[in-house]
Predict the 3D structure of the following.
Amino acid sequence: MNADRETNLDMTHRDIALLLAEAADEAEIGIAPTQAVLRGGRRRRARRWAVATATALVIAGSSGALAVAGLPGGDGGGSREVAVAPSVSADLLKPRSTALAVGRDEGKNWSVMLELWAPPQNEKEARAQLAAMEEFGMRPDGVERASELIGRTTYFVGRAVEGAYGEIEQGAFGGKPAVVLSETAVPLEPDTDGPARLVVGRLAKYDAGVICTWQDGTTTDLRRNKHGSDGTAITSVEGSPADWFVCLAPEDTAYESVGHIVPPLPRGAQKP
């Protein structure tokens, strides 16, 4: 395995400062108010991702292991509160950010972040949450009315590579959905046409792990409670009915398929 793909355990304060500086781009002057709000939300989202990534890397350096840490929602540069009725819980007005994976590839730090919004229970909470999402630059696709958020846990998954940020997927969980294996494959670096090396997906909590198969015939065997040296991992996230996994293909190959690893049967049991 290429040494550059191993997790960087010597993250310095200078590295962190550079990471945060890259995320905090300057505001443009003279754009329409609606565009300004959306751009401001994206900047806050980028700063929050940068802080989460830097924090995870610091934890990794201090513990000697990959950090997959739940991190509170925040923008890393001072919070911006949304004006809502006092009865609306603050937990509904910002996402909980979790680093699903942190690694280093070809000399560049990368991370995959999950941002999870708790489910509102009524129209007032839903309206307040939708306004908060827009403040963060995170309006869900296909949501036309705030009421569509009621009872649904909304999620956004994205990756960051040296200050470049890009969404991987978004969606929502409602009620108690049946969890099946699913995955999305994208280039590691956002806004590029490179090979789909990065795979992010969900698996049932009873699955023992996943096997990511690459186009060159090699595989990555990803098990629970075992972090890969390249930053890959399986993560349980509070509020999510499914667990999450991240696989990264070796250089010069790309995603082919993903299969789940079922737990072994108890002694004496027979396959159905």
Notes: The longest helix spans residues 33-63. The longest strand covers residues 164-174. Residues 1-14, 20-38, 62-84 have pLDDT under 50 and may be disordered.
